């Protein structure tokens, strides 16, 4: 059941980040899931390396960290595309 929750969490995070970064028209469901999961990893790494901590589990803080990480990931990808 855990992997299904991570996929749903990744899809939601990727979708929200794509709306914030205005890339929703370019991404489909699968790419939203990938962006959301990678964003959660990037956000966790950024928060962990800055000493703030990641919180862990499914909560509001983890959601915000994952969205920030997904937005950073989308911004990096957009920068390399240009």
Uncertain parts: none
Give the domain tally.
Answer: 1
Roughly how many Å is the radius of gyration? 12 Å
Number of strands: 0
Strand content bin: under 5%
Average pLDDT rating: 83
Q: How far from one another are the termini?
A: 39 Å
As a percent range, the share of helical residues equals over 70%
- What is the string of helix and strand elements? HHH
Structural class: mainly alpha
Major sheet = none
How many helices?
Answer: 3
Specify the overall morphology. globular
Please specify the SSE layout and strand pairing.
Blueprint: H1 2-20, H2 29-49, H3 60-81
Structure overview:
With 82 residues, this protein is mostly helical. The protein has one domain (2-81). Helices cover 76% and strands 0% of the residues. It is globular, with a radius of gyration of 12 Å. The N and C termini lie far apart (39 Å).
What are the main properties of this structure?
single chain; mainly alpha; 82 residues
Describe what is shown at a glance:
The chain has 82 residues and is mainly α.
């Amino acid at each position: 059941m855990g992997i299904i929750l991570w996929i749903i969490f990744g899809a939601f995070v990727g979708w929200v980040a794509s709306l914030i970064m205005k890339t929703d028209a370019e991404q489909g469901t699968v790419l939203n899931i990938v962006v959301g999961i990678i964003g959660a990893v990037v956000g966790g790494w950024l928060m962990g390396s800055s000493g703030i901590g990641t919180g862990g589990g499914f909560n509001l803080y983890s959601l915000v960290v994952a969205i920030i990480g997904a937005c950073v990931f989308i911004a990096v990808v957009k920068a390399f595309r240009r």
